[in-house]
Specification:
Structural class: alpha+beta
Distance between the termini: 31 Å
Shape: globular
Mean pLDDT: 86
Largest sheet: 7 strands, antiparallel
Helix content: 25-40%
Length: 280
Amino acid sequence: MVRNHVEPVEVSLGGWKVTEDSVREYLRAAGDTLSAYCQHGLTPPLALAARALGSLLQHMDLPPGAIHSLQEIVTLRPVPFGQHITGTVSLEPVKRRGGMEFLTAGFALKDEAGQDVLGGKTTVLVVDPNSFPTGGQETADRSALSRPGGPAVAGDEVSEEGALTSVVRTITQEQLNAYAQVSGDHNPLHLDPEFAATTQYGGIIAHGMLTLAFISEMMTGAFGMAWLQNGSLRVRFKGAAYLGDRVETRGRVTKEAALSQGRQVGCAVELSNSENGQEL
């Protein structure tokens, strides 16, 4: 599929079966050791979204090194182990600005009964390699490569109360290799040091969806079944996590509202480099 379409394009992502083994493999790749998923027999929302994005990338004619820019995920109903999931994607017309192309795709996943289980939107950024100096400038360029943006989830002013327990990870090549296998995202920017050295990043960086998995783990730890059943997430990727970087999630409850059958909680969340404080 070419990316130069001028009208919306509908794409089938095919289907796959979610098993306990496949979920455990995903959790190992993400480094998530929480017991909630297997205890309740439910699939992590980010595991479904990662598989959908991996399938989408395999359908799109993207150059090596395309990067994740924005991600939205909405869980509509929990997905128990054993379900057969199918997906479709609606590709919006490409937007161009300077030496960059923005490709946005809305995705929808259904279970074997035809019920919507997960929806969302992905934006991928394709950068003209001539727009940046390349090679050997990883450290000098890190702050310059950050993209502007606010907190991941809009809410009221964050207070000191309501802080969520952080998740801390160190990025390794072994983890990126494992994550590429479970997600289907084999972008050489995450796997090939020679290629990554020629990009604006100057070296290998982590998958954006992997770093999002750390935030989802934090939310599962804080809210358990509620997050797995109907959580939603909206994020902007502002910077890159490199090999050896120690990254840390942060989250705070910013608002709560009583509903007829429970309560709605809003949080501001972020991931940052714990050594230099850079927001990712």
